[in-house]
Design a protein that fits this description.
Blueprint (H helix, E strand, L loop, with lengths): L8 E9 L4 H16 L4 E9 L2 E8 L2 H9 L1 H14 E10 L10
Antiparallel strand pairs: 1-3, 1-4, 2-3
Helix pairs in contact: 1-3
Length: about 110
């Protein structure tokens, strides 16, 4: 079950992939997931994709943590590779989480 995310920052990444270099994309995505998890202020990730469309939510302790991740050299290089190879387009939104709760069928 998801944890309470109240007070965290969420970065919403919505994208459509080109379909090119699926293996390279998967390797880069795995590497970025591992690298993000090592960053100060990282609080988790949720992601879903279907038919080339994807939504990834990454959670951060604060704005400074999210900005530091954006500026990380390996992340920046992978972002440029994504623009050149893997994405048709993407949109990124950043928001503060004012309320958070979850439910799960036992």
């Amino acid at each position: 079950m998801a944890e309470d995310r109240t007070g965290q920052l969420v970065v919403l990444f919505v994208s459509e992939r080109t379909g090119d270099d699926a293996e390279g994309y998967a390797a880069a995505a795995d590497a970025m997931d591992r690298l993000a998890a090592e960053q100060p202020g990282y609080r988790g990730i949720d992601s879903v994709s279907a038919n080339g469309l994807g939504i990834t939510l990454s959670y951060w302790a604060d704005e400074a943590s999210a900005i530091a991740w954006r500026k990380h050299p390996e992340h920046a290089a992978t972002r440029e590779a994504g623009r050149g190879r893997w994405y048709k387009w993407y949109k990124l939104h950043v928001a503060d989480i004012g309320r958070s709760y979850s439910w799960s069928r036992e």
